[in-house]
Amino acid sequence: MCNMASARRGLCRPRRCTPNLPQQGRRRRIEELSRSSREKLLQSRDKMFSKFTSILQHAVEALAPSLPLQEDFVYHWKAITHYYIETSDDKAPVTDTNIPSHLEQMLVILVQEENEREFGETGPCMEYLLHHKILETLYTLGKADCPPGMKQQVLVFYTKLLGKIRQPLLPHINVHRPVQKLIRLCGEVLATPTENEEIQFLCIVCAKLKQDPYLVNFFLENKFKSLASQGGPNAISEDVLKGQDSLSTDTGQSCQPEEPSGASGTEHTDLEDEPSRQMGDLSASLENLSVTELPEASVVRPNQDYNLVNSLLNLTRSPDGRIAVKACEGLMLLVSLPEPAAAKCLTQSTCLCELLTDRLASLYKALPQSVDPLDIETVEAINWGLDSYSHKEDASAFPGKRALISFLSWFDYCDQLIKEAQKTAAVALAKAVHERFFIGVMEPQLMQTSEMGILTSTALLHRIVRQVTSDILLQEMVFFILGEQREPETLAEISRHPLRHRLIEHCDHISDEISIMTLRMFEHLLQKPNEHILYNLVLRNLEERNYTEYKPVCPEDKDVVENGLIAGAVDLEEDPLFTDISPDNTLSNQEWLSSSPPATPDHPKTDGKTEVHKIVNSFLCLVPDEAKSSYHVEGTGYDTYLRDAHRQFRDYCAICLRWEWPGSPKALERCNLEAAFFEGHFLKVLFDRMGRILDQPYDVNLQVTSVLSRLSLFPHPHIHEYLLDPYVNLASGCRSLFSVIVRVVGDLMVRIQRIQDFTPKLLLVRKRLLGLEPEGPVIDHITLLEGVIVLEEFCKELAAIAFVKYHAASTP
């Protein structure tokens, strides 16, 4: 019975309790909803009251008689400080208060005051702002972001103040110190709501420094010196926490320039006595609202000497492209400042060099392993600030185009940054790119053995060679590709600079694509305004003229001809190889002069230069008549090359003018003719390629002859003698461009005899190449026939170059 009773009591107990649980839950939910509704109603009422107060305030200001500017200014500042003294709610956003409108009115008053005074004269409102450290107080409020959104308002106020006030404010200690502190808050966290205001503020500071570069010294901190003088990090933290205003606090500078006299002669009125009491109340109120200023950093970081740069560097990583571009613009302004101390600090105490090179490296590594070289070459011109790209809108898209544009865009930024930078900074930045990107990232790719990898990396090198415009970055790129050696080459030491050796070897690679791309890279490199390029590749080996055989000219030597030919030189018009040339195929002196192009810049005449008509005829008559096809096609004569040769030679003269090259060859009496001659690795490969012109693909031949014609255009007497003078008396075992072509022609004359209907086939191939004949059946010996056509055109081009250079030298 007891057990049954107990069981009944146990069963009955839940029945009595279960119905009460849902009722209690509903009651709690109702209470929570009613409490939430009351809070929303109160917030709504407060907002409405705040807006009504703001409207009423503006109405009163509009209707009330205007106060003196200083009283009005102080009134608005008091209204802001009263908010912190009187309010008990630090969670309401700043937009629900009158603070933004008061700050705006303070700016309006300051601008109006300046407009009413002579330039440079400081008015009482500005003196009040400086004397009472209003910017310091605003910085404190902005850093604490109290009320929420205050940091944004402070940034806007600083930006407008610096932008709208014409008189220089940054020299004032009570301006540049809070500005420096506010700079540190910028870029701390990416993608924040204040990012746009932060970059606007930083850019206006950069613009002010660009106007007055000496002001940058206010923003160069030396925290290590500050630590030594103040006894360690704790001393800094205590100063900041106590709000001390010693000159060494936060700026870290043991001594600052004195304030301009305009701010020191402030009259102490009742209005200016009262704020000291008010600031005490404000400090107490800030403590109640948990707005105490935190220490800047208890641990000193090595890269904090130039906070303006560091903040901009942080913002270059912003996911918002517009913010990143603005930050890059700010950095470009800073690197261009002429102050040596700023340049040194920028390169040694910030991570600017690392940012540039690391991003270059990461963007390069993000490229696909293989990209079509034609796509790399033809992708549209890249401007670093305008690299927006839409794959969907691009009709010529290809895999990796977005990554390629990003890489080329950032390389363009690095190039422009170095171009605009102060010289010390530019050299340091360029060396960083050389060491950390060229050597660290690109060189392993160029030295690899994979043909696809070689082709892609060489195409990218070719593209940046074309793109670079900074002389200092170009110099580092040239040292990277060619090395710094300037002494004559020897065959045993051609691999002294491994990358140079590898790239020149690639000009004669088994892959025609690699050969063409590398030759194109060298062709564009030769067009760059850098003297070391041509000297390293060619001139250092021609300096002693030991390619010639010196025969002293005696007065009784009867073999010397009137036109200055070296004794023993052979006139090619009398050479047995050219006995089939008819007089109709040569041009007279008068005909050469009549086809002369316009005058070119003065170029010193080479003493003893062979008569130009002999040189020109020598090149034009190299190819025998039966191997010529241009006579049968209109518009392919020699004269078509004259205009291009004149324009190109004029451009090269303008580039080489500052290199102070000699006007005549070095006297043979002063040359070391006993030294063994080696034309150099570059010319060796080109001459070897030229010797195989009849057996190489058409595109390879075009590129080889294009590089050789570029070299021939340079206005150096040794280059002209070695490449363009057929009558130079070569030393035993030496070869020149003309002698290489003579050997090719000798081989051609033998091979012509074995080909049936050689001339008709040659003409048909020329017409097909010009698009005058449709493609048809494959013609036998097509490679040889195309090689003959390229050879004929190359000889005409060399003749035009020789004539243009002679004409330029003989023009008074």
TrEMBL record:
According to the UniProt entry, which residue ranges have a biased composition of type Polar residues? 245-256, 585-597
- Protein name (record): FHF complex subunit HOOK-interacting protein C-terminal domain-containing protein
Can you tell which superkingdom this protein's organism belongs to?
Eukaryota
Region feature (Disordered): 15-37, 245-279, 585-609
Into which family does the record put it? Belongs to the FHIP family.
Origin organism is Ovis ammon polii
Q: Where are the transmembrane segments?
A: none
Q: Where is the FHF complex subunit HOOK-interacting protein C-terminal domain?
A: 679-771
